[in-house]
Amino acid sequence: MGLFIIILIGLCSHSLQYFYTGVTRGINFPEFTDVGLVDGEQFVYYDSNIRQAIPKVDWIKNNEGPEYWTRVTQIAQGHEADFKANVGIAMQRFNQSGGIHTFQWMYGCEWDDETGATDGYEQYGYDGADFISLDLKSTSYVAPVPQAVYTKQKKDGVAAEFMKNYLTQICIYWMEKYVQYGKSSLERKVPPQVSLLQTVPSSPVVCHATGFYPGKVMISWQKDGRDLHEDKRAELKVTPDERKKNQFTCVVEHKSGDPIHMILTEEKIRTNSNNSPVTVLGLVVAALVLIPVVVGVVMVVKRRSGERRSKQHQ
Fold first, then answer.
1. Residue 209 domain boundaries
2. Strands, E, within 113-155: which ranges?
3. What angle do CA 294, 295, 297 make, to 5 degrees?
4. Quick check: is 5 in a domain?
5. Based on the structure, what is the number of domains in the chain?
6. Do the bridges between strand 216-223 and strand 140-142 make them parallel or antiparallel, or are there none, so unpaired?
7. 121, 167 Cβ separation under 8 angstroms
8. pLDDT computed for residue 232 by the predictor
9. pLDDT of residue 171
10. Are 273 and 301 in the same domain?
């Protein structure tokens, strides 16, 4: 079946992720944010305005005491100071003297509780583009742009070894601990709500899914009951005349139950012209972009060197 993964948070059964974002001044947004997620669910948050790490779900609030939150706050404050410096350093390397810029860091680990397989990753980004990332197999960093070569040289060696150890061992330990804390919440299954959206009558029809948990859904199209393989997207690019002559069905697959089949009819399509505006889609897309920004995820995310102790990466 031709499948299009519209949202994917973690390929394995469980994941622990951290997202950090530093931005230059000039917009109505904290200069630094730090967000942690377990299985795609935000459980801890910090930003440079509140300057305090706070729980976002009851399962972490009820299982960790003041010492934990003091430690996590201190770690986040340390990252905040680093990010303010790193944004300025990146601007210098890219010969920029002003403007709005973002420096991001994302790292995390994944664990398949059925096979026992684990994986991890670390990525940095600047202004939404790849800056540098860790290759776990070679235990070395990859610099896709010249401005990141110096960072690669600095981080290869001790920092790379430390981060690999963290991602493959320490991160897995904390992930398993957090999963146990939030077992009842993280194992819940909420089915998606499916909509057919279109900007104008001549534009592609988008099969859109929202509100589901866990955060992984697969969307495909069928024509007269047969899978469409040639275009593995959530968009259906066919003419209105072809839609009238054939039956097109959007198929949405999610862990919550059997696949959802929505047959495409003109009455079901929400467009800008029928008072069910696709601005809804715009708002949802904006939310999916904004949440990552708040979460620190606007494309790739910057991380700092792994020279802190293991307890700092919780």
1. 193-285
2. 118-126, 129-135, 140-142
3. 100
4. no
5. 2
6. unpaired
7. yes
8. 61
9. 96
10. no
Question: Which has the higher per-residue pLDDT, 295 or 245?
Answer: 245
CATH code for position 261: 2.60.40.10
Inter-residue contact 180 to 155 (CB < 8 Å): no
CB burial of residue 114 (10 Å; 0-12, 13-18, 19+) = exposed
Question: Residue 221 — pLDDT band, cuts 50, 70, 90?
Answer: very high
- Are the beta carbons of 191 and 204 closer than 8 angstroms? no
Let me know whether 26 and 128 are in one domain: yes
- Are residues 158 and 259 both part of a single domain? no
SS3 call for 314: coil
Q: Is the same domain home to 254 and 151?
A: no
For residue 236, give the H/E element and its range: strand 235-236
Residue 297 to residues 11, 22, 145, 302: CA-CA distances in angstroms? 17, 11, 20, 9
Judging by beta carbons within 10 Å of its beta carbon (0-12, 13-18, 19+), is residue 234 exposed, middle or buried? Answer: buried
Residues 6+ apart with CB under 8 A from 17: 9, 10, 36, 37, 38, 40, 106, 107, 108
CA dist., res. 234 & res. 192, Å (int): 15
In contact, 24 and 100? CB cutoff 8 Å? yes
Is residue 106 located within the same domain as residue 26?
yes
pTM of the model: 0.67
On whether residue 2 sits in a domain, the answer given is: no
